[in-house]
Write a structure and sequence with these properties.
This protein is of the alpha/beta class. The protein has two domains: about 30-145 and about 270-290, Response regulator (Rossmann fold, 3-Layer(aba) Sandwich); about 150-265 and about 300-325, Response regulator (Rossmann fold, 3-Layer(aba) Sandwich). It is built from 13 helices and twelve strands. The protein has helices spanning about 5-30, 45-55, 80-90, 100-110, 150-160, 175-190, 205-215, 230, 235-245, 255, 270-285, 305-310, 315-320; strands spanning about 30-35, 65-70, 95-100, 115-120, 140, 165-170, 195-200, 220-225, 250, 260-265, 300-305, 325. A seven-stranded mixed beta sheet has the order 7-6-8-9-10-11-12. A five-stranded parallel beta sheet has the order 2-1-3-4-5, sandwiched between helices. The longest helix is centred in the first third of the chain and has 25 residues, at about 5-30. The protein is elongated.
Length: about 325
């Protein structure tokens, strides 16, 4: 005959066993760190959603089969080192890094925790990997060094504005990839008979000052090199371009979907989406050193007709036919 005390003991034992099983199951759920210099909104919603959707397609659900830990520097790159240390301290299985500054901070925080570059410039030149084919360390992922696109962006601007003669360029001379882009832009400008106005920045506050200078100089067109600092000031940049009716060219479609005029280049969403395959392979046991770094193979021309109308511009039919995405 089973006594009440024995029944209670059995019940407690079952509850304890279930708790142990649940705790062990939770412990097996890998933590994925996401490290970015920007803010979660409005700068990153589409890329992050693309990453999450790609992970879902691969069978990973945040909060169930994986746990994603986000760390945002909110446009203050100097915070990245502490945020990367925090992720390493949280025992993440790997870190998805957005941009060179985030990758550098993650690599300084650990040489053993796998790091997936969701976006990066010159991964080899920056010292993140030994080569694209054989990374050789704890870093792999996506790289998008495409200085040859700078000439195409200027040509597209010239097609849009046949009488164009003076173009301002907002760029960071301390960024090696942007330095390559600047050199390519200068060569293209000479071929097209365009004069360039260099508007340099090194810090987020420099971008603010550049926007003031832009409002005073009123160039015929503007080219914006993408960086954490410009992305963080996206709303202000778009507002200045709209207020002073300055046609602006960007290097990622995310600018155009949020109100910019025209862009030619990769989409950050596509890079984040592809990064999910690296996350999957690493979680299944692959080592970053054995996973070749990938480069984008397709580039999109995106045009916002609503913005063009607000600027008083008529987009030539030839450009519309070439566009991959036209926003009404």
């Amino acid at each position: 005959m089973t006594t009440r005390r024995e029944v209670l003991g059995l019940s407690f034992g079952c509850v304890l066993a279930m708790h142990v099983v649940r705790t062990r199951a939770q412990a097996r759920v890998p933590r994925i760190g996401v490290l970015a210099a920007g803010s979660p909104n409005p700068s990153m919603p589409r890329p992050i959603e693309a990453l999450l959707q790609a992970l879902r397609d691969l069978g990973y659900v945040d909060g169930r089969t994986i746990q994603i830990e986000y760390r945002w520097a909110d446009g203050k790159p100097e915070r990245l080192a502490a945020l990367a240390d925090d992720l390493v301290g949280a025992n993440v299985a790997l870190i998805v890094a957005s941009g060179d500054a985030a990758t550098r901070a993650a690599r300084q925080a650990s040489r053993t925790v796998p790091i997936v570059m969701a976006t990066s410039g010159d991964a080899v030149g920056a010292g993140f990997v030994e080569s694209l084919a054989r990374p050789g360390g704890n870093v792999t992922g996506m790289t998008a060094i495409t200085p040859e696109l700078s000439a195409k962006r200027l040509q597209i601007l010239k097609d849009l504005l046949p009488r164009l003669s003076r173009v301002a360029v907002l760029w960071n001379p301390t960024d090696p990839v942007q330095a390559l882009d600047w050199n390519e832009t200068q060569s293209a400008a000479r071929s097209l008979g365009l004069s360039l106005q260099s508007m340099e920045f090194r810090t987020p506050s420099d971008v603010d000052r550049a926007l003031v200078a832009l409002a005073h100089s009123l160039p015929e067109a503007l080219v914006v090199f993408n960086s954490a600092e410009t992305v963080e000031r996206r709303a202000q940049l778009l507002d200045v371009a709209a207020l002073h009716r300055i046609p602006a060219m960007y290097d990622a479609s995310e600018w155009v979907t949020t109100g910019g005029l025209i862009a030619y280049g990769v989409t950050h969403a596509s890079l984040f989406r592809r990064s999910a395959t690296f996350v999957d392979r690493i979680l299944k046991g692959a080592k970053p050193a054995d996973l070749p770094v990938e480069q984008p193979f397709s580039f999109l021309l995106t045009i916002n007709l609503k913005t063009a109308k607000a600027l008083g511009l008529t987009i030539p039919q030839s450009l519309l036919l070439r566009a991959d995405e036209v926003i009404q």
